[in-house]
Fold Adenosine deaminase.
Amino acid sequence: MEERPTLETIRRAPKVLLHDHLDGGVRPETIVDLARDGGYTDLPTTDPGSLRTWFAEASNSGSLERYLETFSHTVGVMQSAESLTRVAYECAEDLAKDGIVYAEVRYAPELHTSTGLSLEQVVEAVLAGFAAGGRDHGIRVGTLVTAMRHQARSMEIAELAVRYRDEGVVGFDIAGAEAGYPPTRHLDAFEYLQRENAHFTIHAGEGFGLPSIWQAIQWCGADRLGHGVRIIDDITVENGAPELGRLAAYVRDKRIPLEMCPTSNIQTGAAKSIAEHPIGLLRQLSFRVTVNTDNRLMSGTTLSEEFAKLVDAFGYGWDDLRWFTVNAMKSAFIGFDERLELINRVIKPGYEELKQG
């Protein structure tokens, strides 16, 4: 009989992460160090253990806006090339220790220029950290440059994505509070990216509902949806039989990837609990669902822990975890040959070995 996956064995599984924020996964010890070295004096505490607890407690408000406030401290200490390179290197190291073989980590260059760095210097510092971390720890990391949806710099950031796409930037993203800031405000950037054959994802369907998802796909042409949790609003279940609305059916038919982050979705109020998370029904209906961490510090989580929670809530086995992982690798923004190589030579054999015990 196949043994049920445990947190310990899941950590050994080759995993793929598509939705992880660089400024949402900084080590508390590093935050304290960087604050001291950079003269940042606004931390609520300089004890790393207490700081970790503070981030976790501040992130459990059920409000996306309140959740986003915690980033003022991580971003505040990431304002030099040296700090950005260090955080990126440590991110690669932490992800590799969790068994992740490929990751796409996103960050907003415009948030790291308050002490004079140019957008290009920010991007180059982050790329340097991931390149070194990848070499030292055996993980492939691609970056997504993110524009803030309440600002007006999306075209600049889109141009960065294209300029550095042969050096490690694999795509573009917009993030920030959804309500009042529809993705269509950045239509010129998305049209530019499409003309340049560049990849992009859009945060949609987390803090706002179906209109956000519809705009992201039908107006902006998103390759993937960041979260996309509210697609569940277009699915009705009567007498145990699910019925998909036109938007939900389109998302499933087109195999549009959903970058779901279970723990984070609960913290921001997009889902009530792991057991009630839409991921359960969406998995049953074979949507292109992927599992992600979003912000490892704020959510106090790892990708292995996200998988373990789903195993406990839905009784998933190794085949389910492999399915999520292959979905993620298929949906990555790197080339087809590299994706296929990782699926056939790393992911499938790795899960088969764990399944056999």
About this structure: The chain has one domain: 7-356. Residues 7-356 form a domain with the TIM Barrel fold (CATH 3.20.20.140). The CA atoms of residues 228 and 283 lie 13 Å apart. The mean pLDDT is 95.
